[in-house]
Amino acid sequence: LAKTTQPISMDSYEGQEVNITCSHNNIATNDYITWYQQFPSQGPRFIIQGYKTKVTNEVASLFIPADRKSSTLSLPRVSLSDTAVYYCLVGDLALFSGGYNKLIFGAGTRLAVHP
Amino acid sequence: KAGVTQTPRYLIKTRGQQVTLSCSPISGHRSVSWYQQTPGQGLQFLFEYFSETQRNKGNFPGRFSGRQFSNSRSEMNVSTLELGDSALYLCASHPGETGEQYFGPGTRLTVT
Predict the structure, then answer these.
(1) What residues of A are in contact with residue B98 (Cβ under 8 Å)?
(2) Full DSSP string of A7-71
(3) What's the pLDDT tens digit per position in A41-98?
(4) Do A45 and B103 touch (CB under 8 A)?
């Protein structure tokens, strides 16, 4: 299981682009990278998942370099409502499908967006 | 589609009591997983049920148990509550084999 390292906290201002980087040096060939967002007293919410290069959806973009040892979640033009904890998880697709017994949600990155 | 619902949202119990939490998954989802989230330990996996069978289990004592009904609704039970069981208990719903998990809002359990 690939261990991940993320910054503990980040600050930004409304309208700015936020990039949160996650390091996963021992990522395995079959591992995917998944990002979740969690608001206080709510369950985590899936944001984006990718394997390599770039993935984009209506919420965020995920950039993964060729060596896949890190990934960057990019949130365009953040608003106050983007204030949350963001988790980076790495694992085989099968692990994301059901039992999370092998996945570890770390401390995540606490993003604070200011007016 | 309605999301994952959990009841109750908040609960206060005293040490030694037992508690039952309920989770209704998204319609059509056959897998339900339970997690415990505390400030100190983060989000930890408890167990997963699929088609009424426990498919995966985390490293929690036997005081923590669960079950799933034929309509995929799930309950988890914690017996002989301890102060350290105070946490946000999250339920996640999943189609079964592929796709993403959807988390419910959680039940905030406080043990006094």
Answers:
(1) 93, 97
(2) -SEEEEETT--EEEEEE-TT--TTEEEEEEEE-TTS--EEEEEESSEEEE-SS-EEEE-TT-SEE
(3) 788 998 999 999 999 999 999 999 999 999 999 999 999 999 999 999 887 766 555 5
(4) yes
